[in-house]
Amino acid sequence: MIQITIPTPDVTIHKQKEPELSHIYGFTDFHLISRETGGIFMFYNERDELLFVGKARKLRPRIKKHFEDTVSVMKNHRSEVTKIEVCIVEDPVHREIYETFIINELKAKYNVDKVLYK
């Protein structure tokens, strides 16, 4: 049997209630997320329920794209996101494994691809 442990987040950013700085859906701390490294990211709601898991070669642009893109799975659910966790995972094979594992282990609400638990 293969043992997989969900990595501890390297960065966690929270939605601010009344942000004073420029923001995207209440998030002002995107600068804390690496622009050049790869990894996985998880969006949570206010009840700490996992909404979506994704992976990226370059984390910050990919995460921001989910808040700006018209074709994102999250486009109708962006306002639900209150916390973003990021785990640095440089190896693309490991990113794929972690993403699929987390989607199915924690039953991410809005992931439609890679779902095996239905």
Report on this structure:
With 118 residues, this protein is an alpha+beta fold. It is built from two helices and four strands, in the order βββαβα. It has helices spanning 59-68, 92-105; strands at 11-14, 39-44, 50-56, 83-88. The chain has a four-stranded antiparallel beta sheet. Strand 2 and strand 3 (50-56) form a beta hairpin. The longest helix is centred in the last third of the chain and has 14 residues, at 92-105. The chain is globular, with a radius of gyration of 14 Å.
Topology record:
Elements: E1 11-14, E2 39-44, E3 50-56, H1 59-68, E4 83-88, H2 92-105
Antiparallel strand pairs: 1-4, 2-3, 2-4
**Measured distance between first and last alpha carbons:** 22 Å
Return the average pLDDT rounded to an integer: 93
Largest sheet: 4 strands, antiparallel
Low-confidence stretches: none
Biggest sheet: strand arrangement: 1-4-2-3
Quaternary assembly? single chain
Rough shape? globular
The helix-and-strand class reads: alpha+beta
- Please provide the count of β strands: 4
What portion of residues belong to β-strands? 15-25%
* SSE arrangement, N to C: EEEHEH
Radius of gyration: 14 Å
**Number of helical segments?**
2
Q: What fraction, in percent, of the residue positions are helical?
A: 10-25%
